[in-house]
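Morning. Coffee machine broken again, so started the prediction first thing and wrote up yesterday's gels while waiting. Chain of 455 residues, entered below exactly as on the submission form.
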Amino acid sequence: MFRSVGARLFLSYLAVVAIGLLAASITISGLLVRYENEVSQLRLQELSAPLLTAMTTGLRQNQQPKDIVAGLAEQAQAANVRLLVLGSNRRVLVDSDNVMTNQAVPTPTSGNFGSFIDKGDPWLFVQSVFRPAATGTNPSIIVVARPRAAFADALRILFPSLIVAGVVAAGFALIVAGLLSRTITKPLRELAAVARRFAKGDYRVRFPASGPTEVAQMGGAFNDMAGEIERSRGSEQAFLADISHELRTPLTSIQGFAQAIVDGEAAGAAIEPAAKIIQRESRRLMRMVEGLLQVARLQSGTQDLARERIETSTLLATARAALEPQAQEHGVTFAFAASPDLPAVRGDADKLAQLFLNLLDNAVKHSPKGGKVQVDAMREDGSAIVRVRDQGSGLPQGAETRLFRRFYRGENAQRDGAGLGLAIAQAIAEAHGGSITARNVDAGGAEFTVRLPSA
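Came back before lunch.
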């Protein structure tokens, strides 16, 4: 039962209260004993004054100490004190109780006040030194002693009050400990219940940020985690739906024509066209799978990338040379403008070349015949900025971020594409510490901006 946070908090509160009560009891008892000792000293001083005077007078009159003590015995008994006469060696010569004769009495610790133990009982005494007028006579020490307040007596007096106070404090402690532990553990139990619901598949459940600050922060962290997991699962489900749709079309074609060949429906001259379709769709599937693997490796960081210094202008020139025939076939021209201070970048030359190839290929495909693809490269805030602008119909409304998703194709996209070019481009840019964004331009067309950190 003590493994729960609530039980441990409850016990810790009770332990604090118990330790506090014990410390208070010891302190109060000590103060009480000290107070009683001070009162006893004052009382002893009042009682001893006439007795000391009488004993001093008797000694001056050359009376025997024993006779002096015997004459004052009744008065001493009435005052609950005992009378002692000590020699110069502090040994008892006369004791009104006839108990400590020839025993030593300690030297006073504070002025004329001191204490001694007789048969286990503490005594407090006050002394006065009598010096005889006759030379050569040893001085005598006269002592008046009174029982000292014992610690057990103080506890005996204080114990009933301490018991009552302890019971009251313990009652309040139980109530307060229960409330405090419940206040702290209740939001923890709620968080655990929310986590269990989330584990069972309720991905929309969230924890209301309440309770102590630390618990609220834990709940906020849980909500952030739950939100990310929900978004990831949503993306995963959308991806599975997309890939199922994208794979179904070529697989259907491959299966259909292969089945036609097997069944003999495609025979003779019809076999070659069917085989070509099967080959084309197979290559499409292969490109799709390779593209998916490439995006996954880049996004997970498992793709080995070279880290060499590359001139940005060289990357753009290579991409232009590779796509120039395709642009001429579509009747599209390139216009490149690079600033003199265009910085070099550091990364994998093949992957960065693929990035710009995908962007230029996308721009050529979406530009009308006779259109122009404008490529501007410059330095900005220590980074290499490349802007690729086409003169096509522009981006569909709200597609500025969706077009970088895998298999996304807008209404004006070519149907034979896999929808992975821009996703791969974004993954390459991010793998090199850069970014890629898209927007529509006022003059018409779309503009893609690549930002890569300079070398």
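The chain has a mean pLDDT of 79. Going to sketch it on the whiteboard this afternoon.
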